[in-house]
Amino acid sequence: MALQIVVCGSIVPDPLQTLEPAPGPALKNEMMLPAVLDPWAGHALFEAANLAKKVAGAKVYLVSLGPKAKLQQVMMSIGQKAAFELVAVDGPCGGFTDAAETAAVLAEAIEAVPGLDKSNLLLFGGWQSASRGTGAVLQMIGEILGITDQFQGVDRLAMADDGSFEVFERVEGGGYLVSSCQSTPAVLGWATGELSEPPNNPQVGMQNMRLIMPALQKAKPVKLASEGLEFLSVELPKQKRETRIVKDTPVDDIAREIVDWIRG
């Protein structure tokens, strides 16, 4: 059975202006802004497409939960950058949706992929998220699917001809933790990877749109109840600035004061 790569990617508002909290909770002006694919999920998708070119018979699926209209807008642009088959789920997304409920919905969508073979599955996604910043959803999906080999903060995946592979995870100090796996399945939460954003390819876009539009039309609608989830307050991070103007202060004293301030 050929390698199957499933990429989980959410859509987020394009940060053209400051998103302020609003009652709900929600984000003020969120629906007015154009949507983009979550940057971390974008890295995962580009790495998946690059890997699929190197492994004969490999196939890439992009599984995404979001409002159907916004998904269509994003797919019109992202569909020109990498070859994939879309699995769309029509529902809410963003930083105020429950991670466990989102993971359950996405896991169900992955399970329904025709011909899915979990033994040959690589589950890709973002190490972090532009909507929630926790990366919790991908880990939960892996647990639901029974995939226990999970790696977070991945920048490189080296695949061997025999199906084994090495994973390079970020660690402190600018180094990497290198893990060896004999075979799939595995969950990889990508950091920035090693690839730049690919240029638009109209031919790839035309091939993708033949599958994207039917996938959007048959996207299963879901409602996330978020039972037991309550937000007591939501606010923007406060900026704090303390400025002091001094003259003729020795460099060592300045450095010492900065270190004391950081420690404090």
Sheet with the most strands: spatial strand order? 11-10-9-12-8-1-6-7-13
- CATH architecture heading: 3-Layer(aba) Sandwich
CATH superfamily: HUPs
- Which word captures the global form? globular
**How many strand elements?**
13
Mean pLDDT level: 89
CATH topology heading: Rossmann fold
Q: What fraction, in percent, of the residue positions are helical?
A: 25-40%
Structure description:
This protein has 264 residues and is α/β, with parallel strands linked by helices. Helices cover 30% and strands 24% of the residues. The protein has six helices and 13 strands. The strands form three sheets. It has a nine-stranded mixed beta sheet with strand order 11-10-9-12-8-1-6-7-13, with helices on both faces. A two-stranded antiparallel sheet has the order 2-5. A two-stranded antiparallel sheet has the order 3-4. Helix 2 packs antiparallel against helix 5 and helix 3 crosses helix 4.
Short description:
By secondary structure, this protein is α/β, with parallel strands linked by helices. 30% of the residues lie in helices and 24% in strands.
Q: Mind sketching the topology for me?
A:
Blueprint (H helix, E strand, L loop, with lengths): L3 E5 L2 E3 L7 E2 L3 E2 L7 E3 L1 H16 L4 E8 L1 H11 L6 E6 L8 H13 L9 E6 L9 H9 L5 E10 L5 E6 L5 E6 L4 E5 L11 H16 L2 E2 L29 H13 L1
Parallel strand pairs: 1-6, 1-8, 6-7, 7-13, 8-12, 9-12
Antiparallel strand pairs: 2-5, 3-4, 9-10, 10-11
Descriptive terms for the model:
Rossmann fold; globular; alpha/beta; nine-stranded mixed β-sheet; 264 residues; 13 strands; two-stranded antiparallel ribbon
